[in-house]
Amino acid sequence: MIDWRIFPPLPALRAFAAYASTGSVQRAGNALNVSHAAISQHIRNLEAHLGVTLLDRTGRQAVLTSDGIHLAKSLNDGFETMASAIQALTDSEANRPLHISTTPSFASGWLMPRLDRFRQMAPDIDLMIDPNPELRDPSPGGIDVALRYGVGPWPGLEHELLIRTGVAVVGAPDLVAGHAHSELNTLSTLPWLQEIGTTEATTWLQQSEVTGRHQGARLVLPGALMLHALRTGQGLGVVAKVWVADDLVSGRLVLLHEARTEAGYHIVTRPGVPRAALKSFITWLRRERAGDAKLAKEGGLPAMP
User: Which residue from 46, 74, 105, 132 could staple onto 223, CB 3.0 to 4.6 Å apart?
Assistant: First the structure.
């Protein structure tokens, strides 16, 4: 086991190793981005800490003593090993695709239509999009960011609101003819569509008076397919209103019920400094949020509920 207490301060070891490899306090200072005076002081402090002379200063040019040569070789071997390991880890992390977890409906309804703008901004970043309805937390070497619906907080994770949106019960005009202003419990005889897994509608469905009273058929399917099924009149659905805003304006779908909540989509990450690819992606998400807010203010987009 290493006795860590015997080690001199790391800056002193780095200064001496840099001097030994460059042969000059000036070049060592340039390598470490410090003054040559700081290099000289670090070496003297190292000698005092070890109780040995590392440089013979009797001549015009200081030279390494036998102890200095021995220590310099050991430090060079150790720092080279560490540098190789750090470089390998850095390269591996930098080359790993940015792993994004979200629900299928968010992926198809918001992320994918915009993603080309991120690709133009960061063409060298590889992406892995996981449209999984099950909640999956960011983890080291795994998911970098989750775009998650809810209120938060999520213990042990950091979150930032991206979009706030309520949920809506909607259906195609032909399907809901005569039901447009009905109470929710009277809609239970109609067929219902539900997205697989933990989604925007899960909590609302559990709390609503419709839950447990379905008399019509219920079809559970992935988010993108559910939106298609809604638009083709195959059933009613509970969705984040933002996904069907254009459908409601065009009349492709009819709003039967709306629940305004404090919930929304959040950027969920692990605590700590994000890697470069994640930092770029979060910066882009914030730009998209700001752009949406500006368009909504100018009347170019439906205002977020």
Answer: 105
